[in-house]
C-alpha cells in the first residue's frame, strides 16, 4: 500500500465521525522506485490531504516533507520538493502493518501490501 | 515485468526504510503498471459448459420439503435488522464463497479487454486517478498507462492475483467503499452490480461510485442484461423460483406489479411460509427448486423450463381451458425472470489446487459433475432488464446520465457527477 492510497482510505464503520486519516502502524516497509512524473504530481497536489501525507510518511520513516506544500506558482520550479513528494507518495510501500482508526482504535490489517478494509457484521 | 525486477532488486534490503543504492530503473512512459498480457495463456473463452436443468412434479415436492427443512434450521435474526450494507446470506454463499473458490481459474478466463471499457478508460485525461470497484482479477487496472488505478474487490484471492501483478489494490466492499469523497477522477464498475441481491444494495453501490469521484467526474457501470443476445444461454441457468422472487425483490420489481399479483396464474401457495421474519432470511430459505434433487439432462425443452419457473401454478394451468392465456402468462413471467444461478464449472485439477472445494462439496454449496470432470458452483445473478440500470441511477441525486448503451448482452451507463456540490 502506497501513501497515495492511504491518503484516500477512511474508516467506514457506522457512526464514526473522525474517519480520516487512518494512523499507520508499520511492521514492514519496502521502497520501490518509480519513474518521476512531475505532471502527475502537480495533478495530485490538489487532491492530497497534506497533513495526512506528512504524518503517514513520518510513520513510515520518511521525514523530509515540509509541513506545508508550496503554492502552485512555486511548484513548477521546485524540483527538490517534487522529488520528495514523489518519493513519499509513490515509492514507500507498507507491506505489513495496520491502519488504525483514530476514533475507535479499530485496526485494519495490511498484509503483503494489501489492506483489508472489510467490516465485521456489527460494524456495518 | 518491470515491477518484478524492482522487487528482486529490493528483496535484499526489504526491511530498510530508505534507499541508498543506485541501479535505478527507468520505466517507460508513466510506468506505474506494466500489465503484461504475455503471461496470459491464449485460452479460448469457452462459455461455461451448459447443463439443462429441468424439473418434474416429484422433484418439486421433494424441493418443497428441502426448503421447509432448511427454513426450520435457520436461526432468527433480530428485527433491528440488516442495513443495506450488511451482506445477505445469498451473496455470501453464492457470490463471495464461489469467487474465492474459483479465483485462479476464473482469472485465467478473464483476459479479453472489452473495447467499450477500454475506450472509456483511454478517454480519460492523463494522470487521472481511476477507482475500479469490484476489480476482480484486475483486468482493467493499468489499462491506460498514463493513469493511476486503485482497485478493490471483496474477494481476497482475486485481489491477491491483482497484487501479484504489481497493482495497487485492497479488499473492500463495493456497497461501503472505505474511501473519502471526491478523491477519484473516475470510477468503473464492470459486471459487479448484478451480484447484489437487493435493489437497495444495487442503488447504494451506484451512490458509492458517485460519492468517491470528484465533481464532474465520470462513472462507467456495466451489468448483465436479462435480454441476452444468445438466448440459448438462459436455458443453462437456473431461474430462482417465483416464490423466492416475491419474498426477496423489493418494490419496483415487475414481479410485484399489480398486473402480476392479481393474475390467478401467479398464485403462489405450495411452498410453505417460513417462521423467520426478515427478507434476507427468507431468501436463504427459499432458494431455487432444490438444486441437489434436479437431475441433469443433455436435452431439455423451453416448455419444461417454463414449468420449472412456476411449478405452483401447474394445477391451475391444467384446469385452465384457455391455452393462449396460459402461454401469454408464462411468457410474461419468463420475460420478467431476473434472478438466476449461473453455473461455474471448476475442473477437478483446479479444484484440488484451490482446496476450497472439499468443504463446498461437503456443505452442498457445490456438486460434482463426473461426466465433465468438474465441480459445479452456482453464482447468484440479478440480471438487469432494459431501463432498470438507468432508473436506478437516475435516483442518485447528484449525478447525470451522459451515455447509455447495450453491448454484448450487457446494459451500460456512464454517469457524470454534478460539477458543484448540491447538498
TrEMBL record, chain A:
Transmembrane segments: none annotated. CDD domains: Trm112-like. Signal peptide: none annotated. SUPFAM superfamilies: Trm112p-like. InterPro entries: Trm112, Trm112-like. Belongs to the TRM112 family. This is Multifunctional methyltransferase subunit TRM112-like protein At1g78190. It comes from Camelina sativa.
Automatic annotation (TrEMBL), chain B:
Residues 131-221 form the Methyltransferase type domain. Keywords: Methyltransferase, Transferase. The keyword Ribosomal protein does not apply. The keyword Translocase does not apply. It comes from the Eukaryota. InterPro entries: AlkB_tRNA_MeTrf/Diox, Methyltransf_11, SAM-dependent_MTases_sf. CDD domains: AdoMet_MTases (cd02440). PANTHER family: ALKYLATED DNA REPAIR PROTEIN ALKB HOMOLOG 8. This is Alkylated DNA repair protein alkB homolog 8. It comes from Camelina sativa (False flax). The lineage of its organism: Eukaryota, Viridiplantae, Streptophyta, Embryophyta, Tracheophyta.
